[in-house]
Amino acid sequence: MKSQMFGALRAVLTVATISAAVFLVGGQAQSAQAQVRNLPDFTDLVEQVGPSVVNIRTSEKVALRSAQSGPGEEELLDFFRRFGLPVPNIPKQAPKKGQPQAPQAQEEEQPKGVGSGFILSADGLIMTNAHVVEGADEVLVTLTDKREFKAKIIGADKRSDIALVKIEASGLPAVKVGDVNKLRVGEWVMAIGSPFGLENSVTAGIVSAKLRDTGDYLPFIQTDVAINPGNSGGPLINMRGEVVGVNSQIYSRSGGYMGISFAIPMDEAVRVSDQIRSTGRVSRGRLGVQIDQVSKEVAESIGLGKPMGALVRSVEAGSPAEKGGVEAGDIITKFEGKPIEKSSDLPRMVGGTKPGTKTTVTVFRRGANRDLTVVVAEVEADKAMAKAPAAKEDKPKASLAAQAFGLVVADLSDGQKKELSLKSGVRVEAATDAAARGGLREGDVILQIANVDVSSVREFDAVIAKFDKSRAMSVLFRRADWTQYTVLKAAK
To answer: What's residue 394's pLDDT?
Structure first.
């Protein structure tokens, strides 16, 4: 009887074990199916956005050499063209007497590059990168339906790497522009373009970082989406089918994709394109200062407390900053009342300000904050700075205190003060060790050390003699038309 009961019990346990195993396997299968369902599916996005992405090919006019070229000359030129080297300008030789006059050189279109773009409006306005169309004599746009159009370059902005081209067409599928502020790190994104000329190639990944500092005016979107040569100018698309960026750059040691790519945020691209569309160019504001990061050492040496803002290294003569009272050595902590956490914030804020705007710049100077009023000017071509004239005189000897910083200085003559429009300061006769590391060189004029104005070598030596050599010493100096700031630390 007991044996029958144990047998029945074993049968029940066996059935229960099998049922549990079936349930477990079934649960794993259901879990695996759930994971598959949660993976992103880009098929609908490709069908939705794909027709709005275009292939862009450019060409340039190249002069053809005549048959009168010298022996081996044409082979040499072909060598340069084949390997992508600049073609040298070989002067033509005058024909000898009795020889027929060589025909004039002709031109032909040669391929220049391949890129991508996307349709902004149904009437044929297309956005791409400025470097895609730079130097092009002809731009050809190919749609996904294989129609090909010659495009007109509306305008391009090298600083932001944004360009607009226009084709004569209507009823085209335009993209939807997304809100970059809603983009989150870790979010899935997709790119469509023509890497290596392979049209309509789709790659995907996630947003790796936002506000990545790689340029003066643009905080880039970093992704791990595969981007290669030819993808430039193509769209970065979120899972709602909206364009949130323009693929522009990659980080690479090989020339190909290495897991890091950058896209221009769409809000910045639209702001630039609106100006290009209305005026054909982009206008940006400028202050006329050279800036640097505020290091912990600098913050401590001037009593700022924590590293923040933008350190003014130099101020351009006659610039809005100089007229407004900004000085080298100032820390710009706010612009238009908005705090500046790091130095790269300032060029973006100023660049986005309309030239002619009167605004407030807050600077930290000598332990206190000051509000200065400046009128923002327009960005212009960089001016070459003239080198300050160096007087050839007997070199004075450095004081023992100044030697700790590697400095030899001399009083300014009346003629030098008049020439430089200065009332005080001492001229650097030699700069070695700490002074050289800090960027000082012969011919510079030191105006201030350790936040103290100096008008003679005697005053200069007196300040340095009392200075604690274990601390970093701030130096305000003049070089040509620029007043600059640096920090020196004496050798131990």
So the answer is: 47
